[in-house]
Amino acid sequence: MKKKYSFIDKFFKAWQGFRKFNTLTDKERSIVFYVEDETSWVHFSPIIKELTKKTQNPICCVTSDPYDSSLEETNPQIIPIYIGDGVLRTIFFKIIDATVMILTMPDLQKFHLKRSNYPVKYVYVFHSMVSTHMNYRKGAFDHYDTIFCVGPHHETEIRATEKLYGLPPKKLIKHGYGVLDSLLEQSHQDIQLPTVYAKNKLRILIAPSWGPCGLLEICGVELINNLLSAGYNVTVRPHPLTRWHYPKQLDVINSRFKHNIEFSYEENICSHESFFSSHLMISDWSGAAMEFAFCLERPVLFIDVPQKNNNPEYEKILLSPLEVKLRTQIGRILSPDSIDQADKFIEKIWEERESFVEDIRAARNKWVHNVKSSAEKGSIAILELINNSKPPMK
Question: Choosing a second label site near 50 at 20 to 30 A (CA), which of 7, 18, 214, 223?
Fold first, then answer.
């Protein structure tokens, strides 16, 4: 059981971290990762692991999560700092003196977390494979110096955005997607898909995005009821922000189905057991659909709820978002009005599953850079940024 931290505990812990960071040498502050929450760590850990192989340079991990595993790190090369998520973090961001800072947080400079007064080089690492211009707010990446692109779609979209709004060009790195690489590695380690003796014994993973028009918000209860009634095993894995913004909907789902032995509910996104053990995924506009398809080469059923659009000007970028483009290549689409036919759609997709494999592989090869080697590419890019920095570090 996790230790419970009071507000005072967290503030005191953050103050200690704030003071500790300010005692670090220039070299110890040359590479700084900002871990916003537990979801950030999965994107950073492959790069950090590779950095420890390539350099003896210290690596500073600043976190807002009091339970972050980096705080327990025993590797002397890694310097963990807890900074919290309150006013000290806001001040810290504004006065941080570092060479390179790596984040998975969009909207830098747009809200309370600003670029430093010092000449820090800011690097963005994507926490999803989806496109940049619909799912994210306008200007989400404008204040980054370097972008680690998942695939060619990110490069094309960012350059088009720069041209449209007259922005200075960023340094774009052909990076890839570390989470996919980690999942691919795990998928070859004694993980076996359950044998299906009957079509209605499929294990179905529901892993949607979040928002007022999300799958769970619009038709979650009806979908789960349909699948359970048809005899399928169902796991619901909501986006972490659904619990934050729409807790009542999750409580309704739990209350309604928790006594059904074929139903399970999972909010621990660090566990991938249900991911690997599911035969099919049902999603909406979530990047998790690409992770599932590209890793396991299994199809996805997309419930066609309204597009998740956080940028009212996205259509000015005359490019179709990847999450729109890939739907019919890695799965099939079902209207929410036909949710009572979900079980029939799943049955049909399962019968056609082999026909998806080549299309999924082709999409993965086309839209993801450096499959299985993104961490190496990312670590090299960070070290090049450090080596090109002036003046020399103490």
Answer: 18
